Amino acid sequence: MAPVLSRSLTSASIATSLSPSFNNKNSLVRFRTSFLTQNVFRNGGVVSCGSGLKWKIEKKEDKLVVRCEAAVVEQEEVAESSGEKYEYQAEVSRLLDLIVHSLYSHKEVFLRELVSNASDALDKLRFLSVTDPSLLGDAGDLEIRIKPDPDNGTITITDTGIGMTKEELIDCLGTIAQSGTSKFLKALKDNQDLGADNGLIGQFGVGFYSAFLVAEKVVVSTKSPRSDKQFVWESVADSSSYVIREETNPENLLPRGTQITLYLRPDDKYEFSEPARLQGLVKNYSQFVSFPIYTWQEKSRTVEVEEEEPKEGEEAKPEDEKKKKTKTVTEKYWDWELANETKPIWMRSPKEVEKADYQEFYKMAFNEFLDPQAYTHFTTEGEVEFRSVLYIPGMAPMNNEDIVNPKTKNIRLYVKRVFISDDFDGELFPRYLSFVKGVVDSNDLPLNVSRELLQESRIVRIMRKRLVRKTFDMIQEIAEGENKEDYKKFWENFGKLLKLGCIEDSGNHKRLTPLLRFYSSKSEEDLISLDDYVENMGESQKAIYYLATDSLKSARSAPFLEKLLQKDIEVLYLVEPIDEVAIQNLQTYKEKKFVDISKEDLELGDEDEVKEREDKQEYILLCDWIKQQLGDKVAKVQVSKRLSTSPCVLVSGKFGWSANMERLMKAQTLGDTSSLEFMRGRRILEVNPDHPIIKDLNAACKTAPESGEAKRAVDLLYDTALISSGFTPDSPADMGNKIYEMMAIALGGRWGRAEPEEAEPEDDVVAGASETEVVEPSEVRPESENDPWRD
Fold first, then answer.
1. Greater confidence, 193 or 675?
2. What residues does CATH 1.20.120.790 cover in the chain?
3. Looking at domain 92-295, which of 2.40.50.100, 3.30.565.10, 3.40.30.10, 3.40.980.20 is its CATH number?
4. Which residues contact 626 (CB under 8 A, 6 or more apart)?
5. What is the rounded distance in angstroms from the CA atom of residue 409 to the CA atom of residue 4?
6. Which parts of the sequence bind ATP (predicted)?
7. According to the annotation, is 117 in a ligand binding site?
8. What pLDDT score does 770 carry?
9. Does 179 appear as a known binding residue?
10. Burial of 189 (0-12, 13-18, 19+ CB in 10 A)
11. 8 A C-beta contact, residue 779 and residue 749
12. CA separation (Å) from 276 to 271, 272, 717?
């Protein structure tokens, strides 16, 4: 606020005479002073000047009181007083079009919305009748009935709920986005003595208009127990107006409640007026609504009728001599059928539900024929409140693509028992737990207006965390159960998914690792856990050793195992493609590192350092000579610590792919071949100093380093080590030729072989045909005691 300047001046102190004299405070005073300009005008006793100042003159006895205020104050007041307030306007027809065609992704949800409205009307009546039983009257039970008419293309939905008066029709149906349920809940909340009924479904006030998704005309006939009159609300699609009239036809009068008639569009008439289709929608979306929902269905029954017509060729017998014969015929008829027989068991206390009830609910809700392997029923309260029943199926999906598909439709989300969606992309469950089936019901979920999409929020993240934790508890109970076959069955069905969790969910490693199972060098028939492995470890063992191969058979015969088996060290066999990546993401378990025995720098903890130095000194020349022969095929050649019976082995570098990983990456359909050479890493040839072949080559490199046979032996040694270590040779044909060549040298006429003779003239052959030809062996090599081909 600008400062206010007040001054009191006597008439004598003013530097000019006042003319004329004033009679009241509203009279205009014209005067000239040293600080006032001549531009003044009358303003209710206020004198203003062009300089932006405002002067207010008052007479007090024999004095003139002049008050001066900054004009800023006046400008603010003028600005505030001159502003006009406007209400937002909307084109109703366009707004309705947006609500109908933009909010909902599936037309079929119209039935869910209308049934939910009917359920709310029944809930309101039930609540209000507690304090005013006269509202119930004699109008019958609280129920919902849905009757399609395929011939006329209409659907009629009738409830015996609270109904609406004319004013309520205008307020609820005539005002878009005004929810009668929300207003009712607010009234209950304001009146704390009555309490609040959280079973009411409505929230946004637009669900009713979803009827125009399939209808070109909607007629609502309603009768409230608070009114003696029944009113009809009628509107057509793409219209900005509606009609309300009083029902005068006695045949259409309702005892209580609301009847909605949808006149279907031509292109939706045949689909949604089909009784079976409507019943399927009710079972899908409104199966667990707390009131009975009846649908008008065509049924059949067998009846016996009398057969009186005579057979051909027979004369008709008198009436009294006719034998009454009957036949069975099928008769069709229409009747009401209860569509929501299954009860929401998650709304009951777990102590009240039997095991058979859980199994029956699982089979009906998910169309399964096998009992679930396990289930859990729980209620979460506090920051987020929801109820849930989760199941582990009795078998894995038949289609492998469904195993790791996050959109498996296995989790059904309900809000106040009304189905919302089962199409989630990892919001409630991670991909590796997508095999879990169940229902989740909550009143706190943040949904979009169409109630089809779950919005990302802190509440959803908390729900996901608790659902995952409960699932792990359920799996852990199976693992710790007395019957070990149960977990073996679970692991066969879903073990790969838990390994996927090791890759995708680092936050739950502590829950996942105790559930993992592997074969090992000491347990080739039964799977063992990591806890079992750690418990069986020796005192000097500091790591968990593993070997990744393509099968148990190749793992058993791998040369990497020789020294470890000799020292009684257990090795895990990773025989599934996902195993190696999963273990690499775990890195440690109970402070024990995972070590791949097919990679360099393997430390077993109890090596003989003296012997190692002697062997290294003895074979350093051989290692350099072999490296020279092989060139860039290997990064280096060194004496091995892991071999006992094999002459050599090819190991991977510490940071490169193993042989198993290299094989898997080559098999990828969309793999990047350019990265294979880079990620393949180093290959290191390790030789066994105690093997005869290595000793012979050591002698050859010292006495005949240029020997062709020795060089061929080195090439063949490398190729065989390549295969025995799990790698794929670059040229299998070249390797085969080398083996054939070595076999020819080794066999070379050992058992004698027939040499082909040159062809003789035909006459000589005919002439000597009667003589017996003796073929002598071309060469016979003496057998030696050390001959490897000797029997």
1. 675
2. 609-669+677-746
3. 3.30.565.10
4. 637, 685, 687, 697, 701, 714
5. 73
6. 113, 117, 159, 164, 179-180, 203-208, 258, 451
7. yes
8. 46
9. yes
10. exposed
11. yes
12. 10, 9, 73
Mean pLDDT confidence for 42-49: 50
Q: What is the mean pLDDT of residues 454-475?
A: 84
The domain defined by 519-597 folds into Rossmann fold (3.40.50)
What CATH topology corresponds to 609-669+677-746? Four Helix Bundle (Hemerythrin (Met), subunit A) (1.20.120)
288 is in an annotated binding site: no
pLDDT band with cut points at 50, 70 and 90 for residue 707: confident
749 is in an annotated binding site: no
Is 208 annotated as belonging to a binding site? yes
- Tell whether 359 is in a known binding site: no
pLDDT score, position 786? 56
The two tokens of residue 94 are: 């366009």
- Chain region(s) in the chain for CATH 3.40.50.11260: 519-597
Q: Is 204 annotated for ligand binding?
A: yes
pLDDT at 133 over 80: yes
Higher-pLDDT residue of 6 and 611 is: 611
pLDDT in tens, 522-571: 998 899 999 999 998 888 888 999 999 988 998 988 999 988 998 889 99
Query: If you average pLDDT over residues 45-61, what whole number do you get?
Result: 53
203 is in an annotated binding site: yes
Q: Which residue type occupies 669?
A: T
The annotation status of 113 as a binding-site residue, yes or no, is: yes
Token pair, residue 353, equals: 């539900």
Residue 435 marked as a ligand binder? no
Residue (of 560, 557, 579) closest to 569 by Cα position: 560
Q: State yes or no: 720 annotated in a binding site.
A: no
Q: Show Cβ contacts of residue 193 under 8 Å, excluding neighbours closer than 6 positions.
A: none
pLDDT of 514 reads 94
Q: How far apart are CA 74 and CA 619, in angstroms?
A: 104
